[in-house]
Amino acid sequence: MPFPAQGHMNPLLKLAKLLHSKGFFITFIHTALYHRRLLRTSSSSSVSSSASFRFVTIDDGVSEDESTHTLHYVQDCMRRHCPASLRELLVREEDEGVVPPATCIVSDGVMSFTLGVAEELRLPQVLFWTMSACGFMGYLLFEEIIKRDMAPLKDDVTARNDARLDARIDWVPAMKNARLRDMPTFITHPSHPKHQGMLEFMIEECRNASRATAIVLNTFDALELPVLDAISASLAPPVLTVGPLMGLNNNKLIFEEPKVWQEEMGCLKWLEAQQDSSVLYINFGSIAVMTSAQLSELAFGIAGSGCRFLWVVRPDSVDGGLDGLPAGFVEETMGRGLMIMGWCPQEEVLGHRAVGGFMTHSGWNSMLESVIEGVPMACLPSVAEQPTNSRFACGEWAVGLEIGLIGDLKRERVEGVIRELMEGEKGREIRKRALEVKEEAWRAVKPGGSSYVNLDKLVYDVLKAPM
Ligand code: UDP
């Protein structure tokens, strides 16, 4: 059961397909909100299923008018409505005998309300936190950060300038290079309108994590071992790394995957005509939003860098709507870039030989997709644990260069980082390191590798173990 957003849906679907390949009958649960989004882009009135892998939608109490939604509103509705819908589904189906009885629940780490249902039905319950280990650790540290009076900060304006943002998280050795400003934005920018209620919500989800039978993370030991050890020391359940899931996930498609966005495949043809490692790919995922002034700074930074680029812009990624591109941008970049308004097949794009760099909002799926292809990154984090991901990618792992928060965007900085990444000495070092980390990622998912072994542990020691 995934949280209804693309960055959660993708890894949950990958894990579900892996579990299916291990012999499980899968019921993949959408909430009504996500089902409505799927129907907007799909011609059929239901999502296709196969005999042993089906999609089921349950009621979530979320209003149909998405313009009024905040993250916390959606979480809160689901927390209040979904447990009853889920329990009703599992009990009714067991009574009817139409599908095999449920033997375990695997749900998103931020959907911990499923724990109550699992406890009541005496089923093992795995929480899959879809973020990095460092991001997860950031959330686990919220309570301690507050206890130490480091946060929360008062409002966004003072928050940015507050000297306390440079304080180190030095009491956890694995996090000692992270500053308060690198922690998830729900604690550094608590008064942002979209963050309302999220600090308390995440604290509660972290407390609930201890009730799970096991915790699964889409990362790999060689990348995040010190942080993983710190997480294991602070949580009772075993923590199993099974990432990058896209490396483990080599089983054939068994159905047409439900998609909220139609992918523009034309960009792959354009990439075919480009030289190896010459193109900077720019994409900020499914949620990040910027103002038109920030879009303009970004556009002129890209134009000024002189690099070849593939830039994918979601039409809803600009506050108040996308009202064309800044004057002069198209003329200035003519013949060296492709812009797509919409959505692209990102994993294929990152795997293309022509892509030599990735400007990313530092969403965890995007970063892992870049890591497994050995593509170095320019990090422009926006919300949630993205600043933490960016800090680790540009520091401990040395596979990226930090531009800074989207909120602080300046064209000169964008231009400088792109030049450094695509042509500079530092860029060369990072490219080399990205290829080493790519090797480590593939080692983790090959037979005998840490994630490969952990997937078997998850299946045989947790999900198939007698309660
Ligand atoms: N994605 C994609 N095409 C796009 C943009 C994004 O397929 O044009 C996918 C991307 O491959 C990733 C997911 O959407 O799997 C975005 O997840 P991420 O965690 O990076 O960011 P979020 O959208 O949650 O902020």
Automatic annotation (TrEMBL):
GO molecular function, one term: quercetin 7-O-glucosyltransferase activity
Keyword Magnesium assigned: no
EC number assigned by the record: 2.4.1.-
InterPro entries (UniProt xref): UDP_glucos_trans, UDP_glycos_trans_CS
Keyword list, A-Z: Glycosyltransferase, Transferase
Gene3D superfamilies, sorted: Glycogen Phosphorylase B
Group of enzyme by EC: transferase
Highest taxon of source: Eukaryota
Keyword Glycosyltransferase: yes
Protein family: Belongs to the UDP-glycosyltransferase family.
Protein name according to UniProt: Glycosyltransferase
Organism: Acorus gramineus
Lineage, top ranks: Eukaryota, Viridiplantae, Streptophyta, Embryophyta, Tracheophyta
